[in-house]
UniProtKB/TrEMBL annotation:
Transmembrane segments: none annotated. It comes from Pseudovibrio denitrificans. Keywords: Transferase. This is Glycosyltransferase. Pfam families: Glycos_transf_2. InterPro entries: Glyco_trans_2-like, Glycosyltransf_2, Nucleotide-diphossugar_trans. SUPFAM superfamilies: Nucleotide-diphospho-sugar transferases. One of its GO terms (molecular function) is transferase activity. It comes from the Bacteria. The keyword Transferase applies. The lineage of its organism: Bacteria, Pseudomonadati, Pseudomonadota, Alphaproteobacteria, Hyphomicrobiales. Residues 4-144 form the Glycosyltransferase 2-like domain.
Amino acid sequence: MKISIITAVLNRHETIADAILSTQAQTWSDREHVIQDGGSTDGTLNILRSLADDHTCLRSESDKGIYDAINRGISRSSSDVVGLMHSDDVFAHNRVLEKVADAMSDPEIDGVYGDLEYVSASNPHQVIRYWKSGHYDQARLKYGWMPPHPTVYLRRSVFERWGLYDTRFRISADYDAMLRYLVQGGIKLAYIPEVLVKMRVGGESNRSLGRILLKSREDMIAIQRNSVGGVGTLLSKNFSKVEQLMHRRRTTFPLPHEEICA
């Protein structure tokens, strides 16, 4: 089973090497890493070129934002199973894609997801939030549930039938897309009950008060257009982050790129 990992990146020279090496450390060899660079000017492109291997498919061109870049990457990919690796993230260990492939070997399953750790930007071993997603039940959507987007892998047929990310959203296109796939598409998800990805804090959705408010407005649009609830759904979605902070835990395994360099 070939798996495509999509990375959209723009001016992330501080973290992009970690994301690349984390992907290259995966034991599942039947993969491609589709990197969509938005025209970086800070040295990111040089790093991408220097680290490219036989699994890398790199393109650098201007785009209309992160979701447009992700859509371009998905359109360029050639695998039946597609997931994301954001430029600030790393896999939790080097067998993540093995576990994804194993779960996706069931032809009745349309996608898989797992748990996510938010970690310190300066120390990826320091866990800030632990997002234990749990098993999917459509009734949970009205309480703001969604699978952690960086851990989600979907069959290409999901995108072909139900569309890519709506680029009219600046922050919440992932939430809107997952609701569309789950509610309109009725897709079947399998849960891998472990941390699959470590995500550095400080992403686009929480960099400022203005971004937080924009995300809330866009989340509300996604909730209403997919008919999963109302204001209560939005409030439940936001309050769930408090529980994630309370259930944070410290992991002990090294980062994949550290294993390579050891």
